[in-house]
Design brief:
The complex is a heterotrimer. By secondary structure, chain A is of the alpha/beta class. Chain A is 34% helix and 22% strand. Chain A contains 17 helices and 22 strands. In chain A, α4 packs across α5. The termini of chain A are far apart. The model of chain A has no long low-confidence stretch (mean pLDDT 85). Chain C folds into 2 domains: 170 residues, Response regulator (Rossmann fold); 162 residues, Response regulator (Rossmann fold, 3-Layer(aba) Sandwich). Chain C has a 6-stranded parallel β-sheet, sandwiched between helices. In chain C, strands 11-10-12-13-14-16 form a 6-stranded mixed β-sheet, with helices on both faces. Chain C has a two-stranded antiparallel ribbon with strand order 2-3. In chain C, a hairpin with a 2-residue loop joins β2 and β3. The longest helix of chain C has 20 residues. The termini of chain C are far apart. The N terminus of chain C is likely disordered. Chains in contact: A-B, B-C. Chains B and C meet through α1, α4, α7, α11 and α13 of B and α1, β4, α4 and α5 of C.
Chain lengths: 490, 361, 392
């Protein structure tokens, strides 16, 4: 199958272009061709009117093309400044890395475009949001004249997203062409002048943003008008299933990351955790799934204390987990889809018969679940790693929900998924709660928290600083709470 | 699924074939005579798979059975050592220590075989158990260092190889455990000797079926049981396995114990199959060859079995090349090239990907 | 894509020719017009141990006896070629030039197999039998088990086992009608080495053994007895490397003994001994006055300044004599022990210069004659040392 089929696209200096389409529509492939990662079988690529051949990203960078990938290409053990200058290092006396010059350069860029970054911070300690900023600064440092942003706002707060678009607009006004690859049609229409729609490897439409509505755009993307979002069915909370009080835990490098988290999750509820990345979300998710030990406080699952539990104990107690880092925590990339689907329940029928794997039973169960979740391609023996991100997430969701956990901890469950997959995942989370279970939704995407939650906590500086019922949801105010610029007095 | 496995094994087979071909060309170039090179390969085949022409002309079945016995002896040791490395690989550890585990296994088999009097039906199994236990115990040392102290197993297993050589060959075998005949332990009792399967003319013994059964058992364990699934999950995605509630440490302990036991059995096959005592030195570095067998066999038990059978025959037959003046290290050269080709396979895949892959978005 | 195999082939060819320049083996069916071409040429097979060709010691001595002396041939470029006239005679050490009958080439064709591993000995011996060798030579005590097995299985083939008799499981010598075994009275040669070392040293001498087994301890016992005879006040340090094929280990142990004050090092450690000699050579380069005594072959050529002498074990002679007997159709089985009297062991020519050399050599020669005449018996074990020293 062709990932790209006869696509033509032009980009002018200072233009703001959007590229939209479902997962697998060919957006990433197109951008990778532009960035020198793949070479096209046919067709030409021209920069400044002259045809060019990019053999590697190095060639693309030399021609002024910058890229901020969805999966960051950064070295966790280096500092922010070192990451930014990597590949174009300023050197002192010919050989040594001039760290001060690098830090000064990063500070200057941050000041010019309004980013808040500590050049001396080690990248591994930063959250996803901060890492993305490092990626953008890195591209700018290399003198990008055309900047590709791949799903840049998935991890940002609304205020941060506004900030990013303000920066991007300033860049465009200064002559830089900006390409935004995004699933969020609202922001696409708000930011861009022109929208290219991809479907099945072809460019199916090119629209002016002005005068186009999200509904029209969605119809182009999906090839048919989208179903309206299901009406929100508020929950009637039942018994508490998960309770944390005064929970503290250390983050990486042993620094306290949670400094007093108290929350309660009741049957039938979806409870959101809103917050800017790096405020303890990751540690919170690990604490409530047994992956990270508590240093203080208590934790109960269904009234049973599990303060010092292993991941296995949490699973037994009925906690399911859809983790943030899917590749590391949720799947074994070289295992087949059906093996991945079986993990965690692989010792019980239909996946096993005594000590033996029940291959036939497992295969049948896997096929059924792939059908139900519309996992593509529909081949249970494929290695998990060849599936697209959205389909991998569906497999993970399918497995975790099949265990029917009393408490499902879902971290960034729709990150990087296309419109159809997002809708499916969200509907399943609501449905799970409606069956009398509870869902703890940890998301950096405030819009997602607002759309799904019956109740939400705001996490700031490792503490739960506010608890809000659905009636009091307010995007702007919550954004300020998340940034610590407003203190909840309610 | 079986088709998929075959497809994945195919590049390895091609690599081995390519290595053989390259070696032929190399040999022809080195000898300056393709005819002589062909003759050398012919000699290797006669030595590895049996001298069939001689059997047909003289009716001497030993001409076939004897070379087969030598090939089988080498193949079974290579196979057990290769399985040891492959099992460790499956749980995500690089067992460079198979050699040390093999030495301890050989010593345990020799000591129990000579010092204990038991009925034949019991003696051999007890010797094998002792060898497996000794190898496993030696493998659990680096495992403990890894799990408790975070010491990288590559470092610790390499070091422990030398410790094993020092303790076994430079001290025990020439010291406290030396037998009356000097240079080595006492000869084992007949009840502990691996029964020969094709009569006295061939050294083909129980070691071959034993190692093949071990390969089948390891394959069944890793691929057919939930315990094996968990073991592989730990090796391929430790964090994911932990998050899924699997006992990561427990599976690591078991797999390394099995790895050590297999290497120990390799030592036992050498001692009880052909040496009948622990000689002054157990010589050939089969533990390291095991790494090559595991890699060429793609860490799949049956792949390891295939590569071990092939290289066992090449090794045994390679001796005959000396009759034509070819260096005794030639079979190792083939093995090295095969490894290079298998490793290069990854490089080729990468190049192809860069050149013309149309990837999934 | 097609260039790739060619590249690999070239690499492999390089590797091969590199290997082959060091080793090779008998060329089957090579023309062999020996000096005694009248009689049909017989194949004589030789299996050398894992130390391989080029150990400057035991294996090379056996190869010299078969290839150079018995066959009158040299191995070059993978083939045997006849030696130029006079080359055989030139290769003979001084004390063997006067033998009667003299050493000269006979109608044999050498076939040599190197072994890769302990378990290769048996199939290699068998392969030589299968190749129709009139005599199969097994060099080294490590081949004892394999020789017994193959000899029992092939009663019509003839064998020569060097350095060990056949042993039963309890360690007692046994005989087979088709096996000749040759052992050496290493203690006698080592005694002379020790006597000379005692006369040369300033106070401390060293002994470096390979594997710590009774065969090697024979060397140590003789050496200690010799030192005690000529220099009762001298100290003897002994150390073992644990193997016979690790040059680096030999060098390390040698350097260690030198650091502890030894100034004459005698080694009985196979290839490790090359390292011992290197250690002495380096110590001399650093200004120290030190000597090495080689073993098995005359190792003078390894370091002409540093090698005092060598305790030669005439493996070459034993191999030659067996090949000659087979060629002449008068091979006999049985166990032989070769000592000083049979010229099976001895000191190589002392070419180094040191003060008082003439008197020292005279004293050593006197001791040699006492042993040959049966007036002096040298202990073959360390346990026998005290009673030897107690003698007047």
């Amino acid at each position: 199958m062709r990932a790209l089929d006869d696509v033509s696209l032009g980009l002018a200096a200072g233009e703001r272009l959007a590229l939209v389409g479902e997962n697998g529509a060919g957006k990433s492939t197109l951008m990778n061709v532009l960035y020198g990662l793949y070479r096209p079988d046919a067709g030409t690529l021209s920069v400044d009117g002259a045809p060019v051949v990019f053999r590697s990203p190095r060639d693309a960078i030399a021609r002024g093309i910058g890229m901020v990938h969805q999966h960051f290409m950064l070295v966790p053990t280096l500092t922010v400044a070192e990451n930014v200058v990597l590949g174009a290092e300023p050197t002192a006396r010919g050989l040594l890395l001039d760290v001060q010059a690098a830090e000064a350069a990063v500070e200057a860029l941050c000041a010019r475009f309004g980013f808040q970054l500590d050049p001396r911070a080690r990248l591994g300690e930063l959250g996803v949001g901060a890492r993305q900023k490092v990626e953008i600064v890195k591209a700018l440092h290399r003198g990008a004249r055309a900047l590709v942003l791949d799903e840049p706002t998935a991890v940002l707060t609304p205020d941060e997203a506004d900030e990013l678009f303000a920066v991007a607009r300033r860049l465009a006004d200064a002559g830089t062409a900006v390409v935004l690859v995004s699933h969020k049609l609202k922001e696409v229409l708000a930011f861009c002048e022109r929208v290219a729609v991809m479907r099945r490897g072809r460019k199916v439409a090119e629209l002016k943003a002005a005068g186009t509505t999200p509904e029209v755009l969605a119809a182009h993307v999906m090839g048919e008008p989208p179903p309206p979002p299901p009406p929100f069915q508020p929950a009637t909370p039942g018994a508490p299933l998960l309770q944390l009080s005064g929970v503290c835990a250390d983050g990486p490098q042993g620094r306290p990351a949670l400094k007093g988290v108290s929350l309660r999750l009741c049957a039938g509820e979806v409870v959101g955790i809103a917050g800017v990345d790096g405020n303890g979300q990751r540690e919170l998710a690990e604490v409530v799934t047994g992956l990270r030990p508590l240093t203080a406080g208590t934790l109960e699952v269904r009234g049973k204390p599990l303060t010092a539990g292993t991941p296995a104990a949490f699973r037994t107690a009925g906690v399911g987990h859809v983790p943030e880092d899917r590749h590391r925590h949720a799947m074994v990339g070289s295992f087949s889809v059906e093996e991945n689907l079986s993990l965690g329940r692989h010792r019980v029928p239909p996946f096993a018969r005594g000590p033996w794997i029940d291959s036939a039973g497992r295969h049948a169960a896997a096929v059924l679940e792939m059908e139900r979740w519309d996992v593509r391609p529909r081949d249970a023996s494929l290695p998990m790693q060849v599936l697209s991100g959205g389909n991998q997430q569906k497999v993970v969701m399918a497995r975790e929900l099949s265990l029917d956990p009393a408490v499902l901890v879902a971290v960034q469950p729709t990150r990087g998924l296309d419109i159809g997959a997002v809708a499916a995942v969200r509907a399943q989370l609501r449905a799970h709660a409606a069956r009398g279970h509870a869902v703890l939704l940890v998301s950096l995407d405030l819009e997602e928290v607002l759309a799904l939650s019956d109740r939400a906590y705001v996490l700031y500086g490792g503490r739960t600083v506010a608890e809000l019922p659905r009636a009091q949801f307010d995007e702007r105010r919550m954004g300020r709470l998340m940034l610590g610029t407003e203190v909840d007095r309610g | 699924m079986a088709d998929g496995r075959l497809a994945r094994a195919l590049p390895s087979l091609l690599a081995v074939t390519a290595a053989l071909g390259a070696c032929f060309v190399a040999l022809a170039a080195a000898l300056g005579d393709a005819g002589l090179a062909a003759e050398a390969f012919g000699q290797m085949a006669l030595g590895g798979f049996g001298d069939v022409p001689r059997w047909l002309s003289t009716g001497d079945a030993a001409a076939v059975l004897r070379p087969l016995g030598e090939s089988a002896g080498k193949a079974s040791v290579l196979l057990l050592a290769g399985l040891s490395v492959a099992v460790a690989f499956q749980v995500g550890l690089f067992n460079i220590g198979a050699q040390g585990q093999l030495l301890w296994g050989g010593l345990a088999a020799a000591v129990v075989g000579a010092a204990v009097q038991l009925p034949p039906a019991l003696h051999l199994p007890v010797c094998l158990l002792a060898a497996a236990a000794a190898g496993a115990a030696w493998a659990l040392l680096p495992t403990a260092l890894k799990l408790r102290r975070g010491v990288h197993e590559v470092i610790s297993t390499i070091m422990l190889n030398w410790v094993a050589v020092a303790l076994v060959e430079n001290w025990l075998v020439v010291g406290p455990l030396q037998g009356p005949a000097g240079a080595g332990t006492a000869e084992v009792h007949p009840s502990a000797v691996m029964p020969r399967l094709l009569g006295e003319s061939s050294r083909l013994n129980l070691g071959l079926p034993l190692s093949l059964a071990a390969a089948a058992a390891v394959a069944a364990w890793l691929l057919r049981t939930t315990h094996g699934l968990e073991t592989r999950a730990v090796g391929r995605g430790q964090e994911a396995a932990r998050a899924a509630g699997l006992p990561v440490e427990g599976r690591t302990w078991t797999a390394m114990a099995v790895a050590g036991a297999l290497a120990g059995l390799a030592g036992a096959v050498l001692v009880l199959g052909s040496e009948l005592r622990y000689p002054g030195r157990l010589a050939a570095p089969y533990g390291f060859d095991g790494i090559a067998m595991a890699l060429i066999g793609g860490n799949h038990p049956l792949g390891v079995a295939a590569s071990s059978l092939l290289f066992g025959a090449l090794r045994a037959g390679g001796t005959r090349m000396q009759l034509l003046g070819v260096h005794r290290g030639f079979p190792e050269l083939i093995q090295g090239l095969a490894l290079l080709f298998v490793a290069a396979r990854l490089g080729w895949a990468w190049l192809l990907l860069r050149r013309k892959e149309t990837p999934r978005a | 894509m097609s260039f790739r195999p060619v590249l690999f082939a070239c690499a492999a060819a390089l590797a091969l020719s590199a290997c082959r320049s060091k080793e090779g083996a008998g060329a089957q069916g090579a023309p062999s017009p020996g000096p005694a071409a009248a009689a049909p040429s017989q194949k004589v097979g030789l299996v050398i141990d894992v130390g391989g060709r080029g150990d400057h010691s035991f294996n090379d001595s056996a190869l010299r006896g078969l290839e150079t002396w018995a066959a009158g041939k040299a191995l070059s470029a993978n083939r045997y070629t006849p030696l130029p006239p006079g080359a055989l005679e030139a290769s003979l050490p001084q004390e063997l030039r006067t033998l009667t009958p003299p050493i000269r080439a006979v109608a044999v064709e050498p076939v040599v197999l190197s072994s890769k591993a302990q378990e290769d000995y048996e199939p290699n011996l068998q392969l030589l039998v299968d190749q129709g060798a009139g005599l199969v030579i097994a060099t080294g005590f490590m081949l004892e088990n394999a020789t017994e097995t193959v000899a029992r299985r092939n009663p019509s083939a003839r064998f020569l086992l060097i350095d060990s008799t056949l042993l039963d499981p309890a360690g007692n010598p046994i005989g087979l009608p088709n096996v000749r075994s040759v052992v050496f009275r290493e203690e006698e040669g080592s005694f002379l080495a020790g006597a000379l070392a005692g006369l040369v040293t300033k106070g401390t001498v060293g002994f470096v053994g390979g594997m710590e087994i009774s065969l090697v301890k024979k060397f140590e016992a003789g050496f200690r007895a010799g030192v005690a005879t000529t220099n009762p006040a001298a100290r003897v340090l002994a150390a073992y490397t644990g193997n016979f094929d690790d040059v680096a280990a030999g060098k390390q142990v040698g350097a260690d003994l030198l650091a502890k004050g030894a100034d004459v090092l005698f080694h009985a450690a196979g290839s490790d001994g090359v390292g011992v000699i290197q250690a002495v050579k380096e110590a001399r380069a650093g200004g120290a006055q030190a000597w090495a005594i080689g073993v098995d072959s005359d190792q003078h050529h390894l370091a002409p300044d540093a090698v005092l002498t060598s305790m030669v074990k005439r493996v070459d002679l034993a191999v030659y004599e067996a090949a000659r007997d087979v060629a002449a159709g008068r091979f006999t089985a049985g166990d032989t022990a070769l000592g000083l009297a049979q010229k099976g062991v001895g000191l190589a020519e002392v070419r180094a210069e040191f003060p008082g050399k003439a008197e020292a050599l005279a004293k050593v020669e006197a001791l040699r004659q006492r042993i040959v005449s049966g007036g002096l018996t040298i202990p073959a074990t360390l346990e026998g040392l005290p009673s030897f020293k107690a003698q007047p």
